[in-house]
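Q: Sequence in, structure out?
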Amino acid sequence: MSILTWTWILTGLSFALYIYIAYATRAKSTGDFYAAEQSVPPILNGMATGADWMSAASFISMAGLISFMGRDGSFYLMGWTGGYVLLAMLFGPYLRKYGKFTIPQFMGDRYYSNSIRVLSLMCAIFVSFTYVAGQMRGVGVVFSRFMGVSINMGVIIGMALVFFYATLGGMKGITYTQVAQYCVLITAYLIPAIFISMMFTGNPIPQLGMGSQITAEGAAILGNPADQGKYLLDVLNGIQKDLGFAAYTSGIRPRIDVWFITMSLMIGTAGLPHILIRFFTVPKMRDARSSAGYALFFIALLYTTAPAIAVFARTNFVKSIHNVKYEAAPSWFKNWEKTGLVKFVDKNGDGVMTIAKGKWDDPKSANEVKIDQDIMVLANPEIAKLPNWVVGLIGAGGLAAALSTAAGLLLVISAAISHDLMKGILTPDMSEKAELMWARFAAGGAVCIAGLFGIYPPGFVAQVVAFAFGLAAASFFPCILMGIFNKKANKEGALVGMFVGIVFVAGYISYFKFINPSMNNAKGWWFGISPEGIGTVGAVLNFVCMWVVGKFTPEPPQEIQDLVGSLRYPGKLVAPPTQH
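A: Exactly. Output:
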């Protein structure tokens, strides 16, 4: 069967499964809709958290980034996995003990201020919409290549599916759907990696295969029998140098920037609203910490495989098209060319595709090939000439990754509007039935707006996600951490800290990414810190503002200090005040 047929079959079966689960676990109360009645077992919550976390950026973009950046891409692995250690140690058990539905609700109660709650829900909505834009675009890219429809039509189909199970099931439906989506995406990610690792090195473990010696079969695939017995990374380093690039295993990004990006990704992960709310869904405090451990394990299966896929894809990509006549280009190149994500411009008129350092559209550069880094994972099975069913499976996995995260983000937006704004502030006497209606209405509206972001994206997937992490790092992380571990942290400090942190980070990223992108380089950045790493500075500013302002403003009421103390010690939680 063709790739298109296999993709429709595998995607159709997975979509049918998602719809059935959503219907079978549909929400019947606000407790179901917001927190699945706090009844999700830790291992399933860990699996759902893994699906919630492994977005289009993780599944589609991360290995592509590493394949282009080489060693410099390692900060994505360190930052995103390290963030779960922070979650398990610093946030999970305490947020579960607090026992409510949303992060803005925790912020409003802890800092005894509806103003904080409003600012928090605005931050949650902004971060979630910023993040979800990349997910919906990822859905469109997958549909465009593998299912024969336009990117925009793919986004619309994805919108329809998410609309169904997000509005019907809420957190309960999304959680169990995400368990199924994790099984689909991890299977789709691992199978091609195992296949290619066996082809190149004879080692079925991709994590080891990327550092193993090339077999005779692998050398034949690469078109150079002399590569037999050489280490795969050494061969890739040689290829890179021959093309004018730095060695793949060397790093060219400033160390200070690597450190700041890694920290920004860590604390940004620990501050993302759609991840934090998952700790409200387990039965007990200890379940929150164990579910974070399970999540780290499930995530590590994919994250430790990503560098191997990056190495395989980069090597195969260059070997298959460099110095090859365009008329004889492999089928994968022609297939992806239809999407506009790969292009060839014959600058010297010889009809031969040349890969070199520099931009493909720069007349002074010898590079004649453009390839969008976001397709490297999706195109990898085709480049390696794997069976059509494997190619179709990677499409189903990419959709599962993007849709699972989109659903979690949309739930955050829905809860912020229905529970924190409508029920919490504007109409406190709202009935549960009315609140559930508002929640579904808000989720539906959020899906439509997210779809528009997917059709008219504000930037590449990785750029947009970097924006979300910076904002989460500079807004939520410092305030939640201080709110749990510092009894003296007050509302004035939190307001100033969040405002300063998010304005600084948003301004810095907007300037270098959108206003003056020509300055987006190591020479133009302040102190050598890129927009991807500026969230660390924003978090520091937030901490400093909270501490300084707290010294010159009144301490929190005693009841708030008692609440904070009861969060971190065994025993009953001291009830927070209901009026601010």
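The chain has 23 helices and four strands.
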